[in-house]
Structure formats: C-alpha cells, structure tokens
C-alpha cells in the first residue's frame, strides 16, 4: 500500500523539484546523468513556444511538427555546447529561427531569405516608430506579419515578441549590432508599407 | 505602460494551440535509439580495440581469451599435449 502511495506521489514531488530548478541546473543534471526526465522538463518548458514559432514561420502544422522534432533533437545533441553566455531560452529560439529560416531558404532555393545581400547596404531614411508596430490591431498584425518576407518577420518577432536585445539578435544571426539595427529599421519600414497597402484607411 | 500586441498575439496563439503528443514520442524514440547505439559502442569498442592491439602486437591473446575469444594458438598453450 505504501509503495502505491509513493509511486503515486513521486512524480508529483520530483516534478515540483524539477520545476523549481533553473534551466542551467537542469542541463547540468542532464549532462551528468543522461536521464531523460531532465530533458523532458526542458521540453515541457519550451515546446509550446517553439511549436508556435515553427507554425508562425513555416505556415504549416505538419512542417512545424517535423521541424519541432529536428529542433529538439538538435538541442539535445548540442546541450553540452551551450556555454551559458546567453539565456537558455535565447539559445533555444536561435536554433528555432535559424532552423526555420534554413528550411524556407532550401524550399525557395533562395539564399537571400534573411536579406544577406547587397540591399543590406541600403539604409532607409524614414524611421518607423515602435509604437506603430506594437499597437497595431492583433488581427491586422497577424495578417501583415504573414505578408512580409520571413527574414523581416523573424527579426521583428525576435525584437518585439521575444524582447531580445540587438546584441542577442546579432549573436543569433552572427551579424554586427549595426547590421542588425539596419535590418530592424528596414523590416519596420516594410511592415508599415505592407500595412498601408493592405489597409488604405 | 506601452501595449505590446506582438506578445499579445503570441499569447493568444499559444492558448489556441496544443503540441501534438506524437512529437514527444518521436523525440523519445530517437533519443532512445541514440542511447542504444551509444551504449553499444561503449560496450564493444574497447574490447575490439583490445583485440586489435593484441593481434597487431602478436601477443598471446590473454586479454582476448579473458573476453571469451579463443584462438588455436591459445588452445595449444592451454593443452600442450593435445
């Protein structure tokens, strides 16, 4: 009888202990023990957000499912390489964004999905206020984000949805801070143009 | 405080979506496979290396014999009158 009670309670107890641990502590425990329960905790913490990002970027649930599986395997295989310089969440999102952009790039056979081309030199004069993007009606925001190129969408999501700093985005995309600032500026301008084309009121 | 409809959009989308359990099962299966292959290597590679080293050095295969691998020369030394 006691065994039954212990068996019933142990997942609850270990669950609460695990949920009290930080990501870094869980990673350390996983690397020390290779016990899959630690990996499961990380999966439970991030799967929903990663899945949401995959659907949002790939625009297909089945592709998002495949991507999600590959992304988490990649995370697992590279856990020992996580240096702790950035937050674990930032590292997970960087793998997610890079993976999805890569899938789209391969599908379109277009290496310039993330605007790594000459147009990078172009610095738009017009500055779009953050407020314009942040206060766009949610339905419209969704529509416009689906209309602009995926590279611009990704960078706007990193900045405004994930609240990543310019430096963190730069580390993620292996770009300088000034290049990222310019990309954001251009993405905001594209957003505004797409918005006025769609909703001419 | 400034509105952030990007985060609000994400919050709404997260509420509407559930992650299909088959994804976790798929990951578990792959991880299990990797662990199995890893264990296999861990178990057999050192023995293979030992055996190989022994053969190359022309040793008396005492290690190999210990590992349950016998050879004719080994049997001769064990049973000289055979």
Can you describe this structure?
The complex is a heterodimer of chains A (201) and B (82). Chain A is mainly alpha-helical and 201 residues long. Chain A has helices at residues 2-20, 23-33, 36-58, 61-78, 88-108, 130-134, 138-147, 150-161, 166-173, 177-198. Chain A has 2 domains: 20-110, Orthogonal Bundle (Rna Polymerase Sigma Factor, Chain: A); 114-201, Arc Repressor Mutant, subunit A, CATH 1.10.10. Chain A is built from 10 helices and no strands. The relative contact order of chain A is 0.09. Chain B has one domain. Chain B has helices at residues 5-16, 21-57, 62-66, 72-78. The model of chain B has no long low-confidence stretch (mean pLDDT 77). Chain A binds chain B through residues 34, 36, 39-40, 43, 47-49, 51-52, 55-56, 65, 68-69, 72-73, 76-77, 130-131, 133-138, 141-142, 156-157, 160-161, 163, and chain B through 2-10, 12-14, 17, 19-20, 22-24, 26-28, 30-31, 34-35.
List the helices and strands and how they pair.
The complex is a heterodimer of chains A (201) and B (82).
Chain A: H1 2-20, H2 23-33, H3 36-58, H4 61-78, H5 88-108, H6 130-134, H7 138-147, H8 150-161, H9 166-173, H10 177-198
Helix pairs in contact in A: 2-3, 3-4, 3-5, 4-5, 5-9, 7-10, 8-10, 9-10
Chain B: H1 5-16, H2 21-57, H3 62-66, H4 72-78
H and E order of chain A: HHHHHHHHHH
- Determine the N-to-C terminus distance of chain A: 70 Å
> Which structural class fits the helix and strand makeup of chain A?
mainly alpha
The CATH class name of the largest domain in chain A reads Mainly Alpha
Alpha-beta content class of chain B: mainly alpha
What is the C-alpha radius of gyration of chain B, as a whole number of Å? 29 Å
Helices of chain B, by number, come to 4
Taking Cα atoms only, what radius of gyration of chain A do you get, to the nearest Å?
20 Å
Strand count, sense and closure of the main sheet of chain B?
Answer: none
Mean pLDDT of chain B: 77
Mean pLDDT value of chain A: 84
CATH superfamily of the largest domain in chain A: RNA polymerase sigma factor, region 2, helix turn helix motif
> Which shape of chain A, going by the Cα principal axes?
elongated
Distance between the termini of chain B: 95 Å
Q: Which percent range fits the helix content of chain A?
A: over 70%
Total number of strands of chain B: 0
Strand percentage of chain A, roughly?
Answer: under 5%
